[in-house]
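hey so i finally got around to running the thing on that chain from the lab meeting. sorry it took forever, my laptop kept dying and i had to restart like 3 times. anyway pasting the input first so we r on the same page abt which one it is
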Amino acid sequence: MSVVKRVRDITVATLNERLDNAEDPVKLIDQFLWSTHQEICQCEVLQRQYAAHTDQMHKQLKDAQLWAQRREEQALTALKAGEENAAKLALADKVAHEERAERYQGLYEQSRGELLELEQLLQELRDEYRSVYDRRQFYIARMESLKLQQRLNARFAPGSADPSQMLRKVDDRLTDMELETKSLRDLRRMGQELVYQAGTVVSQAVDRELQNLKRKLEQGGG
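ok and heres what got predicted. didnt touch it at all, straight out
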């Protein structure tokens, strides 16, 4: 178990070192989380196996202790009945069960100790997974903040579109169009006035010429 724990510690240290230089820390963390998840699943299977084995060793221990106690009671009953040989046989079987109980006691204590160590390691793996997962969420939040800051900087960077400036340009364009339209209208009105004035001048000239001709006729007839 201690070897597994040392490997886990090295893995975490390696992750912390690589995070400082990682271009995509979330991807690196996802790889680590997947690996840790696999180890947790394997440890959970092993923990259940150890728990079942420990329980079995405990049952064997209790069974041997129970049989040793029974044989002692049988030996005592035999002695009370004056059957010494039967008492010896019962005591011999008691000793055998006590030896068996002692062996299972060692196996039970060893399995129980390893089970406790495995459960501790499993808890460390789960805590480690939660801690790294929380860091992943923090990195995601930081990356999202960075993206929003970049969009904000791009929005208000020099040369970026300014609504007020854009509206001023539209206003200027509309003013130019209005002035152009007014100029054309004034030109047309001026042209009409010139034509009217020209027509009046021509009409007056024609009238003068007509009067001149009439005077000539009167003079010629006289």
